Amino acid sequence: MGIYSYELYNYYNVENIIRLGSCGGYTKDLKLFDLVLVDNTYTESNYALSLNNEDCHYISSSQSLNNKIEQASSMLSIELVKANTLCGEAFDRYMTNMNKMLERIPKKYHITGAEMEAFALFYNAKILNKQASCLLTVVDSYYYNEKATAAQRQSSLNNMIKLGLESAILL
To answer: Which of 76, 88, 94, 79 is CA-nearest to residue 135?
Structure first.
């Protein structure tokens, strides 16, 4: 995501990127197939340090872009959950001890789910003065020990895709 979004912003004059994807839920507040609009994301990575010599691990999405997504969700009567995510570097189900990882996350960030691309996208938008947002569908839950089947994943992303496209029309 870091390379692609940087090049889209910097070399192709893209102004807005809405990432659509899946995420895992870490709290009882997120249920399978909920749509999540990422407000802020936290990472343990050193992406910002590597790219820009900045020790940054927490970043916000573009409020103006999120407002358009919320406007579209209202028009389409599609419910959204605004939430903060962990932007990880490994699938949590592959981690040797996910509980230890969850203990490391600063509680002040109120992380409710996990994905793997938002931080680089939001950071690139910040340093290049562009707009970025992230819209996700919950496909598994650490809290409830649930995960969507392949067939469910195939059909449960439709609302997210519809919302992303409608939001793009509003730009």
So the answer is: 79
Give residue-wise pLDDT tens across range 133-161: 999 999 998 888 888 888 888 788 999 99
Q: What is the DSSP letter of 96?
A: S
pTM for the full predicted model: 0.94
CB 167 within 8 A of CB 27: no
Is pLDDT of 73 > 80?
A: yes
Return the CATH superfamily for domain 2-169: Nucleoside phosphorylase domain (3.40.50.1580)
More confident residue, 98 or 20: 20
DSSP letter for each residue of 98-146: HHHHHHHS-GGG-EEEEESSHHHHHHHHHHTT-EEEEEEEEEEETTTTE
Catalytic residues: 140
Q: Do 37 and 69 meet the contact criterion of CB atoms below 8 Å apart? A: yes
Query: What does 52-94 look like in DSSP terms, one character per residue?
Result: HS----EEE--HHHHHHHHHHHHHHT---EEEEEEE-SS-GGG
Show me where the domains of the chain are located: 2-169
Provide the 3-class DSSP secondary structure of residue 44.
coil
